[in-house]
Every structure is written in structure tokens, then in C-alpha cells.
């Protein structure tokens, strides 16, 4: 029995001796492969944003430092790379812009102004708010004059509001071009004429109309007064025209906004210098409209993570407005109504593919927290400019005392940018979004604040890759692509759908093109459907289109020759509060 046991041991020994070289060869190959991987793998060079682990907008003097490897203790590493990373799209152009174009010519059913405008019927308007709110008022005033078949007096600009700019119309806009371009649509005069030879000038009756006043509203409320008094001035003319109008009136809106309203030569020349200087620095640039003023943040009612100091400072500002009561600072943020912080804007842009070499032009007023607040954004994008950094004091001197002229410079530089980004949904953001759609769908990024808010709260518990992927998903439908928003949703000045036409021939060429492009086309169409569905769910700022209150009835007796009731509670009780928001 011992003999058999010895033979069995010897048998297994010989088998193992033959397998040993094979096992050694496999082990050696694995070791060589592992060594090659260590040599060829790129060394990590990301930036660890230490202060991103702090609460929302916690003011910190720390900059972007190389972080400690947290993988050893099982914590996800949130490191912001300096590069934008790979992207499945061209970050400087809109994917389908070649298939759409702006179209605002009148139809054959729109009669010439000479056929419909009787003598001695004059409409004057007084605008309200900052430059961009006044721009919407001027645009709607031309359309209101057309509805009433009246001659329009060149609009009066607001010189007494929060923005305190003494400029008149001709100092900001080219008044002669404005009159001549619209000469077939509305008769426009520079001032009210005199009654007959040597008579007194017409004295207009003053009144207000409700916000979102429809064609029927103007015909029933304003026209009877106009027929009786011959001259009417509509005061505080902001958002006093309905969103839904006939096709020809909507196209007239576009002709006014996108063609008739040209800035004066001094403004255009200075703005072109600024654009040229940005182009000299880089082939492409981003323009960021950053509204982060203390008053703006106080009004928002949001908490930005600044601790007791922030609560005290913004609380003191809020107490100026008796009607402003903030009970739950988290509620507006959950609903996407809080402006993104500068840091959050920077993180969003990096996740969308824009690296640290990108040049950014920032249009902003006073930033709450000053340089300390801007530091994280500047660390992400060191090529950071404003009109004050690329122009001399002497060049800007003619504009310094006039907020609307300074805003006009920013408007042009932002409009000319390759990509326009905003952290808010104010008037400038809306008008530029509509304008950029009309002139070729240039990329226009507005944050999906409702979804991004949740993401920013949880970012410290995820890797940068997961964070960036979520940002790109949430921003689908908020990038300025064609068909992102259904016709009729939101303000017409932001979504001028009636004035955007489809180039059917170009689309046919695309659809019958080489087979290799088919996958991309299908993905594009799917993205359009998904983005539209996402907009309905996520976008908090799209208001319902015209809910006509009882606008069709005539005005009560003695309603003209005095200021009527403003149909907006904020503006009637807190005029400064509304002016603050009317950029």
C-alpha cells in the first residue's frame, strides 16, 4: 500500500513539474502588462476645488488647489479639470441653425400705412425701467399705434427710475433710421404737431392700459378716448401688449426689435472696438450676463450659503420693501428662481465642455461680495474681461454717467459673442435670446436652474465625470437650439416663433444625404423632442400666455387724463422694487 501511495505522489509531482513553466509564463506576462499600463497611463492633472465642499456661495479666500487623493478612504473625488473634455457637439455653434432663418416681412394682407392712418390721431407713450425693458415698450408701442391706426410720437424714455439715466431716445437709438425703416408700417413723428396754422400743440390725455392688453382691449379701451381727444399718452408702458397677436402684427414686432432699433453711431463704434479687442485675444469668446447685485439677491429671497453675514446684509435690504416677505428661502431655489452664483456658472460651463483657455466677457453691475465672489469663476476661466478692462477710462468717459448707454455697450458685445450665457432670466437675457434665435440660432445658454440646484447640492458626493454628465443631460433644451421651445410658450421677445422660418430645401438635402449621417439626424430629432418635454417640466420662468382679465370692456368714465390703476401689485406698491428688476 505504501508502494502505491509513493507511485501516486511521483505521478502528481511530474504533472506539476510540467505545469510550472506555463504558470510562470502567464504570471510574467501579467506583470509586464501591468507595468506597461502604469507607464502609459496619463498622470492626473485636475484641479481640486476645495471650497466646492462648502455650502452654496460660501465666501472663501481659497483658490483652486491640487487635492488629496480621497479614493484611499472611499470618498468620491470631485475635481474640476482644466480642460473642457470631450464633447459630442461643437461647443461654438448650434447643430441645426442652417435650417432656420429670421423672416419678418409683411404679408400682402398688411396694407400700407398711408391707406389706414387718418389725420389728427396721435399716440404717445412713456416707457418704464432699464434699457431692455424700455426696448420691449418701444417695440410694443409701434404695434399698438398700428392697432389704433394712429401716428406714433417718438417714445419718451424713463429718466426717473432706479436706473437714473437722463438720455432721450435720439441719444441711444438712431431716430431717423427708426422713422424711415418703419415708414410703410406706422407713421412716426418726433413731436406732436400744432392744431392748424399757428395753433397750440395737441395736449395728450394720459392713461394706462392693463398688462397683456389684446388688440380688442386697445380698440375698446383706448380708441374711444383717442377718437374724442385726438391725442393719448400711455404711461408706464411696459408689457402692455398681449403675447398672442395676429401673424402680421407679430412680424411687425420683429421688424421693430431686430431691424428698426439701431443704436447711435457713438455707441456702435465703441461697442465694435470692444468686440474687436475680444476677437484679437481669441477666435471665440463667451459673453456672460451676470446679475448678482445685492438688491437683486435680496429680492430673490434665496440663501446663498454666506452664513449670518449674508442673512444680516440681505435681510437689511429686504426690509426696505414692506410687501417683501421671505418665509422659506429654499422654496424659490427648488423652483429654479434663484440666479446661479458666479462659481456655479463656471462649473456649468466647464461641464458643458469649455476649458480654462476660453475667453469670457462679463456684463454685470455691482457683484455682491466683490472680488471674493468672482474668484472661483476667475480661477476656472482666467481669461476674464469686462468693458472696464479692455477699454480705457478716456474711451468710456462719454458713457459713464448714463446707465442705458453703458448697458447698450454690453448688449452689443453680448449679441456679437459666439456663446451667450446668463445666470438669470431678466429682460436683457430674454431679448438677447430672442434676437440670437432670429439671427441664426447662435448658442444661448440659460441654466436649467431647477435641476442644476439639486445637482450643486449633491456634487460633493459624486465624481466630476458623473457631475458633468448630469449637467449636459439637464441642459439639453436650454442651449439655444432650434425647436427647443414650443411656439407660444414664454415671452414673444424671447421666443419670436412667428418670425423664424424653416429652410425646407436645406432640410430635404440633409434628409436625402449620405447614409452615414442618418444616425446623427435621428439623434438630433430625438433631442428636440426630449428637450421640449424637459422644458415643460423644468423651466419655471415661462409664464402662461395671455390670460386676458376683463380687458375687452370700455374704460370707466373719467379714466382718461389721470393715471389708471396698475394691474401689477408689485409696481403699484413697490415701484423701486419693480424698477430694480427691469434691466
From TrEMBL:
Regions crossing the membrane: 20-41
Domain of life: Eukaryota
Ranges where the record places region Disordered: 511-583
GO MF: glycosyltransferase activity
Record field: compositional bias (Acidic residues): 529-551, 571-583
Keyword field: Carbohydrate metabolism, Fucose metabolism, Glycosyltransferase, Membrane, Transferase, Transmembrane, Transmembrane helix
InterPro entries in the record: FucosylTrfase_pln, GDP-Fuc_O-FucTrfase
GO biological process, one term: fucose metabolic process
Family note: Belongs to the glycosyltransferase GT106 family.
Protein name: O-fucosyltransferase family protein
Organism: Prunus dulcis
Lineage, highest ranks first: Eukaryota, Viridiplantae, Streptophyta, Embryophyta, Tracheophyta
Amino acid at each position: 500500500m505504501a508502494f502505491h501511495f509513493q507511485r501516486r505522489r511521483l505521478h502528481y509531482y511530474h504533472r506539476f513539474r510540467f505545469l510550472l513553466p506555463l504558470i510562470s509564463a502567464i504570471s510574467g506576462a501579467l506583470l509586464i502588462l501591468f507595468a506597461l499600463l502604469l507607464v502609459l497611463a496619463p498622470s492626473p492633472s485636475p484641479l481640486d476645488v476645495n471650497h466646492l465642499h462648502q455650502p452654496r456661495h460660501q465666501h472663501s479666500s481659497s483658490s483652486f488647489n491640487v487635492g488629496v487623493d480621497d479614493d484611499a478612504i472611499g470618498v468620491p473625488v470631485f475635481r474640476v479639470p482644466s480642460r473642457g473634455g470631450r464633447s459630442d457637439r461643437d461647443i461654438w455653434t448650434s447643430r441645426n441653425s442652417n435650417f432656420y432663418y429670421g423672416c419678418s416681412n409683411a404679408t400682402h394682407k398688411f396694407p400700407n400705412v398711408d391707406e389706414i392712418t387718418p389725420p389728427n390721431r396721435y399716440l404717445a407713450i412713456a416707457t418704464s425701467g432699464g434699457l431692455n425693458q424700455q426696448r420691449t415698450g418701444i417695440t410694443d408701442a409701434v404695434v399698438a399705434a398700428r392697432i389704433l391706426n394712429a401716428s406714433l410720437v417718438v417714445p419718451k424714455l424713463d429718466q426717473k427710475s432706479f436706473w437714473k439715466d437722463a438720455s432721450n431716445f435720439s441719444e441711444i437709438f438712431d431716430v431717423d433710421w427708426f422713422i424711415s425703416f418703419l415708414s410703410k408700417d406706422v407713421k412716426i413723428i418726433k413731436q406732436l404737431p400744432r392744431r392748424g396754422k399757428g395753433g397750440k400743440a395737441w395736449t395728450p390725455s394720459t392713461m394706462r392700459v392693463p398688462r397683456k392688453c389684446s388688440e380688442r382691449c386697445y380698440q375698446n379701451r383706448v380708441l374711444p378716448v383717442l377718437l374724442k381727444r385726438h391725442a393719448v399718452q400711455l404711461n408706464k408702458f411696459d408689457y402692455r401688449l398681449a403675447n398672442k397677436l395676429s401673424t402680421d402684427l407679430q412680424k411687425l414686432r420683429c421688424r421693430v426689435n431686430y431691424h428698426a432699433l439701431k443704436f447711435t453711431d457713438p455707441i456702435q463704434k465703441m461697442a465694435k472696438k470692444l468686440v474687436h479687442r475680444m476677437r484679437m485675444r481669441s477666435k471665440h469668446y463667451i459673453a456672460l450676463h451676470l446679475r448678482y447685485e445685492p438688491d437683486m439677491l435680496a429680492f430673490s429671497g434665496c440663501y446663498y450659503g454666506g452664513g449670518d453675514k449674508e442673512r444680516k446684509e440681505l435681510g437689511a435690504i429686504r426690509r426696505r420693501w414692506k410687501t417683501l416677505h421671505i418665509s422659506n428661502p429654499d422654496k424659490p431655489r427648488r423652483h429654479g428662481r434663484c440666479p446661479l452664483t458666479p462659481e456655479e456658472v463656471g462649473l456649468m460651463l466647464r461641464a458643458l465642455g469649455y476649458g480654462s483657455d476660453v475667453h469670457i466677457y462679463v456684463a454685470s453691475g455691482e457683484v455682491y461680495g466683490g472680488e471674493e465672489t468672482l474668484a472661483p469663476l476667475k480661477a476656472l476661466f482666467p481669461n476674464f474681461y469686462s468693458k472696464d478692462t479692455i477699454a480705457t477710462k478716456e474711451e468710456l468717459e462719454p458713457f459713464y454717467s448714463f446707465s442705458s448707454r453703458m448697458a447698450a455697450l454690453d448688449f452689443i458685445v453680448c449679441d456679437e459673442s459666439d456663446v451667450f450665457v446668463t445666470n438669470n432670466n431678466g429682460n436683457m437675457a430674454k431679448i438677447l435670446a430672442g434676437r440670437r434665435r432670429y439671427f441664426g440660432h447662435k448658442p444661448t445658454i440659460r441654466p436649467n436652474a431647477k435641476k442644476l440646484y439639486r445637482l450643486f447640492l449633491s456634487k460633493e458626493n459624486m465624481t466630476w465625470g458623473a457631475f458633468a454628465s448630469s449637467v449636459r443631460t439637464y441642459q439639453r433644451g436650454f442651449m439655444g437650439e432650434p425647436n427647443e421651445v414650443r411656439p407660444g410658450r414664454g415671452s414673444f421677445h424671447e421666443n419670436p416663433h412667428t418670425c423664424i422660418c424653416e429652410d425646407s430645401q436645406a432640410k430635404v438635402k440633409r434628409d436625402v444625404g449620405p447614409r452615414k449621417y442618418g444616425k446623427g439626424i435621428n439623434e438630433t430629432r430625438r433631442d428636440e423632442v426630449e428637450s421640449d418635454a424637459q422644458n415643460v417640466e423644468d423651466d419655471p420662468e415661462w409664464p402662461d400666455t395671455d390670460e386676458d382679465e376683463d380687458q375687452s370692456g370700455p374704460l370707466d368714465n373719467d379714466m382718461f387724463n389721470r393715471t389708471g390703476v396698475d394691474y401689477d401689485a408689485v409696481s403699484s406698491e413697490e415701484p423701486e422694487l419693480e424698477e430694480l428688476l427691469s434691466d
